[in-house]
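User: I'm preparing a small set of examples for a lab meeting where we compare how different chains pack in three dimensions. I only have the primary sequence for this one, and I'd like the structure in token form so I can line it up with the others. Please keep the answer compact; I'll paste it straight into my notes.
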Amino acid sequence: MIKTIRTTLVGFFSLFLHPGLLLRILVQEFLPWYLWREPIRLMRGYVEYAKAFYEIISIGFLLRTLFSPWKGIVERAPTGFQWELIMQAIAVNLVTRGIGMVIRLFAIILSLAMQVIVLATFIVIFLAWFAFPVLFVAGVGFALTLI
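Assistant: Understood. Below is the structure token output for the 147-residue chain.
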């Protein structure tokens, strides 16, 4: 364990003895990772979260079934001409469709809010990823002025 730590420290400090090696690692490894691979990974993560939330509460499905009765509760009209039973069936069907529409509209609003929150979070993280080096250098510079 101690030998591994010593080897790691020796390797780390040898980077400062060979500035060309440090520059090569910075240019060939760090910059492509920081400017290309990690931002792509962040975007893929956002897309996966957006898809997952869309699957949880599917806006397309809710819009297709917006006027469907709630939980499939329907009253069939009687076969004969019985005015009271016909009006009762119409009233029940209108109420169940109204309840279904209200609940589905609420679910659509909830799904849209979830998508907006995921998008806003992604934008903040993405911008912070690129702003961090600038903020770090400014913070170090500010800290050095305090000393």
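A couple of notes for your slides: The mean pLDDT is 87. Residues 57-147 form one domain.

User: Perfect, thanks.
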